[in-house]
Amino acid sequence: MAPIRVRYIVDDVDATIAFYTQHLDFIVKAHPAPSFAVLQRGDLNLLVNAKNGQGGAAQAMPDGRKPEPGGWNRIQIEVDDLGGFVETLRKAGLRFRNDIVTGFGGKQILLDDPSGNPIELFEPASKTTTIQKTTKRRN
């Protein structure tokens, strides 16, 4: 499978690198300029650009709008024990947008990176739980 690339506009590239490498097991694949880096986790390449950087990603649109951090689009990172992982991250002082939400497919929570870009931490429902729920709905 080809690598997946997602671009995030950030306030501070160095703070973003520290956040993703220290807390979410990313590695620095490239950091060719102070305002740009490529972080990698498995097949995911996270391209981070400073909102005031030299490259094309941070340039104003013809109507004057400028790319900025935040929003609601997000990457999803699957974890085995969401509750335990969230507790560890909270102890490290990290910010969450919400509390753990449980749905049909599993549990999730939204973690903000230093620039306010969301990361969805997701623990899938076990296959047994999913099968039981499906069976109950049919009856």
TrEMBL record:
Residues 2-124 form the VOC domain. InterPro entries: Glyas_Bleomycin-R_OHBP_Dase, Glyas_Fos-R_dOase_dom, VOC_core. Residues 120-139 are annotated as: Disordered. This is VOC family protein. It comes from Paenibacillus phytorum.
